[in-house]
Amino acid sequence: MEKAFNCINIALMMVCIIATLYPLAYVLFASFSVPSQLVRHTGILLHPLGFTLAAYKLVLANPFISSGYLNTIFIVVVGSGINITLTAMLAYVLSRKRLLWGPIIMGAVMFTMFFDGGMIPSFLLVKNLGLLDSLFSVILPSAINTMNLIILRTFFQSIPESLEESARIDGASDIVILTRIILPLSRAAIAVIVLYYAVSHWNSWFSASIYIRKRTLFPLQLILREILITNSNESMTVDSQASNIAELEVILRYAAIVVSTVPILLLYPFLQKYFVKGVMIGAVKG
Predict the structure, then answer these.
(1) Topology of 61-278 in CATH?
(2) What is the number of other CB atoms lying within 10 angstroms of the CB of residue 148?
(3) Mean pLDDT across the chain
(4) From CA 230, how far away is CA 237, in angstroms rounded?
(5) Which label site among 191, 200, 224, 272 has the fewest CB atoms less than 10 Å from its CB?
């Protein structure tokens, strides 16, 4: 009975793996395929149809792609740094039992998970702060994610209070306790929260579409949206001698997806050892 159960589980897992990986493989194979062959192809795609790098050359030659990369990298690096700094500071404060009105403050924080000011008040706030047409307009309004705050707060609460008490006896302040005791013991949780913030920033485009009008400040995902959704050919600068641009547009979108997706996929293996441990935060008390 157990063997049959394991076989069924393995079979279901294989179906889930194939259903997850095939769309990624399809995009990758299509991006390297010859456009004319790809247009005529029907059915499942298990390998590139021919081989060409024309779409990648066109995408990488686009100045808006390169500027979008730089803008997105700035948003990810600076934004994640601001996110984890503010989140860790607030999580530490909320995790202390001696905090006055702690449950009330925590309730107010959780309230923001279900209700917000709305798009128009948020736009007016960003405008009055002078952040329009600035990369910080997509960083500061979402500086602290409530769910990430709760995860980090839960982890901080699991650290023995005796460590904090010993440090206070030696004259340590809250800043010293946070930076030299709490954070070093929370590397797994910090790594997971940084990954969450980084992926969120990398995939974000909606806030930039509202607050940013200068094309040179567009993040990569907003440029990609123009290519995939609005079919804006003007967002791509093409050599006048490229007579086969109509055919290249078939695989251009696939190449753009690969170019914008690969960097964040390469980041995950370096944080994988922390990810499994971090996602179990709060699942087992001990």
Answers:
(1) MetI-like fold (1.10.3720)
(2) 21
(3) 81
(4) 16
(5) 272
